[in-house]
């Protein structure tokens, strides 16, 4: 109904509910709005009945709104509270943060006593600097902030992980629709073609007119393994395309996940996959950049190994369900 044709009561109600809806959650907000609209109208009709009025006019409706409260205040009682760490988890958060901080301080002490950084994969704990109390305080503050931040991330992600991993909610099904399986196969083929034929044209650093590839000889040595995994992935998706989600296709897919896990672990134990090449123009920054690339490559490989492990478990569980 055009706004010019609305009665004052309808306009008043529409404005109130509009302000209310803008403050409500996206999911379920319309249901809450309808419920509050009905409650508000019932309250206004009750006031009109008490006063012997034939109907609830704008003044009575405004009184009912005043009793209910401002729409922003009403909506706040329905909106979820924005806690990064839920109040019921504060004690556990404090305990785990204290434990992480204590372990971190011990590692800093060990690194300081040994006068060298402690390395664990891409991570490192450095010794205290040479400036006495200031260095100790800076190291402690740095450790505390890092550990608090880490625990905040863990506790904030924990409810989502629990919902994601809940057997009652989690679907282990594979999207074996022709469109999805075909798209995955095409993506695997595209990645394989880029790595096999175009890597030394796309992933390069320039030194004047000369192009130096970033990929190392070690990458060339393990490239057949990587291409084999991609070919295996194409075969798996082709089977999904032809046979759908069956025990056999799920078992083969789980085998692909296991093979991927083994290859990723093998790659993390080898040499760097990509490095800035030896050239005079790169001497000033080659070492720190190569260290960063090595750490980044290790993190990526570990992430892919984790994804492969999760995939293997999911496919085996799904195979048991089918």
Main attributes?
322 residues, 3 domains, two-stranded antiparallel ribbon
Describe this structure in words.
This protein is mainly alpha-helical and 322 residues long. The chain is 69% helix and 4% strand. It has a two-stranded antiparallel sheet with strand order 1-2. Strands 3-4 form a two-stranded antiparallel sheet. Helix 5 (90-114) crosses helix 6 (133-165). It starts with 7 loop residues before the first helix and ends with a helix.
Total count of domains: 3
Q: Which bin fits the share of residues in helices?
A: 55-70%
Rg, Å, rounded: 31 Å
The number of E-state strands comes to: 4
Structural class: mainly alpha
Strand portion, in percent? under 5%
Strand order of the largest sheet: 1-2
Give the terminus-to-terminus CA distance.
Answer: 53 Å
User: Shape from CA axes?
Assistant: extended
Task: Summarize the main sheet.
Answer: 2 strands, antiparallel
Could you give the order of the helices and strands? HHHHHEEHHEEHHH
Show unreliable segments: none
Rounded average pLDDT: 82
Number of helices: 10
